[in-house]
Amino acid sequence: MTNKSNKNWVHDAEVKWLATKEEFFDAQLNKALAKYQDPLIVGNKLSQILKNSEVEAVKMVTPRAVKKWASPKTLDKWQEIIKDDQMLIELREIGKSIANTLRPLAGNTFTQWVCQVLNLTFKNKKLPLECITSGAVKKQLTKSLILKANATEIGTRDYKPDIDIIVLNKKTEKPIAIISAKTTLAERVMQTINWHRYLSRLPEGLRTLKLYLVTAWDTFESGTNRERVQELDGVYVCNEAVKEYGNIKLFSKIVNDIIKLI
Asked: Rounded CA gap, 91 and 99, in Å?
């Protein structure tokens, strides 16, 4: 797809690049098939084949990224940098480091923002509610909610709850809801759903806890997750483009649902 903010990369260039990419990876597979003869043996080695292709793939992908995203002012500098194979590989590692750092940073920031927005709303509405993301209460609740392996029948490992935010009733000083905050549903959404399925096996005093999911970017226009998340007690989206459906709602509606728990 043409990058509208940059005229260095046009549709024809993208089509040509996609064809080159397909040819490259087809060649890697065919080379392995010719070497080992048995396709199942090749199947066992696919991860290694991908790993062995990585350096050449970086050399193929990076010039495209530079032409798509570099400004006319910096394009020549970037193209000079990527002529150096060592700098090209280092650039790739730098990019990985940035992405790996930003991912949890975005997730942690999102959780704190959700917590702050809810607490401000509770305060403005004079509600006896409070959201917390850390502290003794969270530690104790997390410990209480761990499902032992022999109780869950899901294997030999204990199943830990997916807790980002706890909603407390300040009058009773007891938790009434748990919020799992995820920037995207690619982030372990099945962990949240699976854990919800085992709530009935918790101690009786904890079974009434509601489990909510708050997400940033997913609009639930379609897809498997649109149906999957219906198992949860509520799904709230911090995106005005959300397609509300069943228990999938715009974020602002979470407050009225929480109030019903008091």
From this structure: 12
- Residues 6 or more apart whose Cβ sits within 8 Å of residue 66: 75, 78, 79, 82
Helix (H) or strand (E) holding 27: helix 11-36
The ranges of the chain annotated as CATH 3.40.50.10010 are 107-259
Cα(234)–Cα(213) distance, integer angstroms: 6
C-beta of residue 232 within 8 angstroms of C-beta of residue 196? yes
The residues pairing with 250 across neighbouring beta strands, listed in sequence order, are 237
Residue whose pair of structure tokens reads 């962990």 in the numeric block: 191
CATH superfamily of 107-259: Type-2 restriction enzyme NgoMIV (3.40.50.10010)
Q: How far apart, in whole angstroms, are the C-alpha atoms of residue 17 and residue 67?
A: 12
What pLDDT digit, counting tens, does each position of 40-60 carry? 899 989 888 988 998 899 999
